Amino acid sequence: MGDKLAVVTGSNKGIGYATVRQLCKRGVGYVYLTARDIKRGEKAIENLKKEGFKPLFYQLDVTDRNSVRTFAEHLKQTHGGLDILINNAALITSNFTETTYEDSVRVIDANYFSILTIQEYMFPILKDNARVINISSDCGHISNLKNTYWINRLTKQDIKLDDINAFVNWFLDSVKNGTLNEEDFQEMPLLAYRISKIALCSLTRVQQKEVGRGISVNSLHPGYVKTDMTKTTGFLTIEEASEAPVYLALDVDQSVKGKYFWFDKTEKEWADPNLKIHSTYAVVEKCLRELNIIQ
Ligand SMILES: NC(=O)c1ccc[n+]([C@@H]2O[C@H](COP(=O)([O-])OP(=O)(O)OC[C@H]3O[C@@H](n4cnc5c(N)ncnc54)[C@H](OP(=O)(O)O)[C@@H]3O)[C@@H](O)[C@H]2O)c1
């Protein structure tokens, strides 16, 4: 464990921060806390150092190709590669119930297209038998969709990256052209976020098929967690929510590959639209009302 190197994206706060803390606690030798903002990153490092942990820091904006490339070069030169990559950084829609084009582009860039950049630069330096964990959501389960064409295309065995990009672009074009059809989706709130996370789960399966060298790629719903993303509503603390990513990073058998996990560490069938484990906005709305965040 002491010679392992782990990277957690977007880890200056929230679930990413707690995951870094937990990886340090478990004795992973080199844990990179990364943040797009240097000050926020250094503050987080300072807090962890006060507790006796020794994470390393690197500035990383996942939407900035240069930033991703520079970090990958640093990892290669300084450590020869990495063993654990937790793709945690993400954004949610600015307005939970309205879907605008600009906001959808922003969310999908950060939550989906950034992962393709990370794949381009980081996958070549993953060590044999490395582990990649894509932090998705219950918003990313296929049952968030009702459109049967896209359900079939995204769940087919021989799915390719082009299928996922076509799905994301179909959504963005529909928003741009004002042709979004409510019948295609289980629920309309957080729609761009749902699309980005469905794309991420689909990508997990494609990445797993292509990566080789014993490497595993799994995705995960970390639970409904009290963080800035949820305006501090939720049922889990960040410490509780860090348990499942750390389990996938350190404890699950290496043979577990290309799967979708729940925050309680159980595997769920991602490709089953009848499972009905999609995110229910009424639950979020109720919590937002209880905290007087909405009337
Ligand atoms: N909280 C939940 O209930 C919940 C439920 C399901 C899934 N998730 C997923 O869990 C993960 C963590 O979410 P969270 O709740 O911990 O959210 P959070 O507290 O808002 O933290 C998100 C982190 O991502 C970073 N980030 C955003 N854009 C970035 C970029 N371009 N480059 C680098 N870092 C960036 C943020 O940095 P800044 O501080 O600079 O903004 C922050 O550190 C996300 O993937 C989220 O979708 C959360």
From TrEMBL:
Molecular function GO terms recorded: carbonyl reductase (NADPH) activity
EC number(s) on file: 1.1.1.184
Domain of life, source organism: Eukaryota
Swiss-Prot/TrEMBL keywords: NADP, Oxidoreductase
InterPro entries (alphabetical): CBR1-like, NAD(P)-bd_dom_sf, SDR_fam
Coiled coil region boundaries: none
CDD domains, sorted: carb_red_PTCR-like_SDR_c (cd05324)
Enzyme class: oxidoreductase
Protein family according to the UniProt entry: Belongs to the short-chain dehydrogenases/reductases (SDR) family.
Protein's UniProt name: carbonyl reductase (NADPH)
Species annotation: Pararge aegeria aegeria
Organism ancestry: Eukaryota, Metazoa, Ecdysozoa, Arthropoda, Hexapoda
Underlying gene: jg10147
